[in-house]
């Protein structure tokens, strides 16, 4: 279904993505890990054509999506929805309208300016919000929601596009552990229940191990690991992160360290 063939992206002297190739059959949950600057975002941005590739092909169902232009490129963009670390919602706009903006590609500008959405679209948006457990937030301004709720709104907006693939660029990097889990559970449900492929850049190993069917490790733009979570040993992680013997997995963990949890328990309720 997806075949990445010798894809590179060069910025001046810097090769951000260096001749990467891999193939994914079926709607898997793929995690991409690697330290800052490894090329993770650049790869996702090439997938949905926000950044052009210097060379290579990305075949989706046999068609090279890097070769598409104009309307065909825009059609592809609506088939691979992107979710960002900072949610990228319109903060002062209500939640339902934010979700409806997922239909932007397929609706006229006038419809959007006057907020005149077809009834079927409005019902679809409310259905999706309901599915993600945030239907009651629909009339509120996006900025009034917690980070975890805002990310679920962003996922709902992505689902309005009915995408084949969901690309998530560090979707939980701004969230506390509890909200991070809710958002990752939501992405996993969409992957397994809807059969949509998810490719997520993740900054923590425990999340990659827990949610992904397959993990790709990038280092300096190259694939240095490609396997199932069970193969992602501490040694493999050292290779990906380029760390020495002092490499400590906790540094890449989203869960609360035990001393912090104990500390929370002894605080009086008002102070928490
Ligand atoms: N528009 C650009 N112009 C020049 N260099 C860029 C540009 N975008 C990315 N780079 C460089 O390409 C390399 C890979 O960046 P990229 O953002 O893809 O890494 P990343 O793994 O996503 O890191 P992070 O987790 O910090 O976002 C970095 O050295 C970065 O400085």
Q: Beta-sheet strand percentage?
A: 15-25%
Strand arrangement across the biggest beta sheet: 6-7-8-3-9-10
Residues in helices, as a percent range: 25-40%
- Look at the structure and give the mean pLDDT: 88
Largest sheet, strands/sense/barrel: 6 strands, mixed
- Radius of gyration from CA coordinates: 20 Å
Decide which structural class fits the backbone. alpha/beta
SSE string, helices as H and strands as E? EEEHEEHEHHHHEHEHEEHH
CATH class: Alpha Beta
- Low-confidence parts lasting 5 or more residues at pLDDT below 50? 256-272
Pfam families: ABC_tran
Domain ABC transporter: 2-245
Protein name: Phosphonate ABC transporter ATP-binding protein
InterPro entries: AAA+_ATPase, ABC_transporter-like_ATP-bd, ABC_transporter-like_CS, ABC_transpr_PhnC, MetN_ABC_transporter-like, P-loop_NTPase
What does this structure look like?
- The protein is an alpha/beta fold and 272 residues long.
- The chain has a single domain, classed as P-loop containing nucleotide triphosphate hydrolases (Rossmann fold, 3-Layer(aba) Sandwich).
- The protein is built from ten helices and ten strands.
- It has helices spanning 40-47, 70-79, 95-100, 109-113, 119-131, 147-160, 177-194, 205-211, 234-241, 258-266, and strands at 2-11, 14-24, 29-33, 55-60, 63-64, 80-84, 165-169, 197-201, 214-219, 222-227.
- A hairpin with a 2-residue loop joins strand 4 (55-60) and strand 5.
- It is globular.
- The protein starts with a strand and ends in a 6-residue tail after the last helix.
- 38% of the residues are buried.
- The model is unreliable at 256-272 (pLDDT under 50).
- Adenosine-5'-triphosphate (ATP) is lined by residues 11, 14, 16, 34, 36-42.
- Residues 2-245 form the ABC transporter domain.
- GO terms for molecular function: ATP binding.
- This is Phosphonate ABC transporter ATP-binding protein.
- InterPro entries: AAA+_ATPase, ABC_transporter-like_ATP-bd, ABC_transporter-like_CS, ABC_transpr_PhnC, MetN_ABC_transporter-like, P-loop_NTPase.
- It holds the Pfam family ABC_tran.
